[in-house]
Design a protein that fits this description.
Strand order of the largest sheet: 2-5-1-6
Helix content: 40-55%
CATH class of the largest domain: Alpha Beta
Keywords: Membrane, Transmembrane, Transmembrane helix
Distance between the termini: 5 Å
Strand content: 15-25%
CATH architecture of the largest domain: 2-Layer Sandwich
């Protein structure tokens, strides 16, 4: 059987490997594969197949709502009435939100946002007999494996 596990690059990987070797798993049955990092910057705009979690109109819609409520309440005292002034204020709020987002995009490194840095990942593959799977999984779990899976 093979056990695949995923670790962040940290001392816990070394601890897990040394513990596996102490439990009788030879080096020939352990494969450690570092995962290369991608250095591509992510665009702020979402595409159809790739969303980066940043919405372009969220601030604009929130400001449109706030401005619309205030414009409607003030519109009761003005000549055109609350509906017209609420719509005008909502439109102005939406434009303010769009300008705010465009300024953020323009002044933050050409529209690219900074990704949260994570440590590089390491895949550890252990080949063993079926009766040793539970023990090896517990060793991986104790040493902070992000996740693991068995095949075979």
């Amino acid at each position: 059987m093979q056990i695949f596990s995923l670790f962040e690059h940290s001392p816990s990987v070394e601890l897990a490997l040394s513990k596996l070797e102490q439990e009788g798993v030879t080096k020939e049955h352990i494969l450690v594969v570092p995962v290369d990092e991608t250095y591509e910057n992510m665009k702020v705009f979402n595409s159809l197949h790739d969303a980066d979690g940043v919405s372009f109109v969220d601030k604009a819609l929130a400001l449109a709502t706030a401005f619309g409520v205030v414009g409607t309440s003030i519109g009761f005292k003005l000549e055109w009435g609350p509906i017209i002034w609420g719509l005008i204020a909502a439109f102005i709020g939406f434009l303010c939100g769009l300008v705010w987002n465009l300024c953020i995009i323009k002044f933050t490194k050409n529209g690219y946002r900074k990704e949260k840095r994570v440590l590089p990942l390491i895949i550890v593959i252990v080949e063993c007999e079926r009766e040793y799977v539970k023990g090896i999984e517990s060793i991986l779990r104790e040493n902070k494996a992000i996740g693991y899976s068995t095949t075979g």
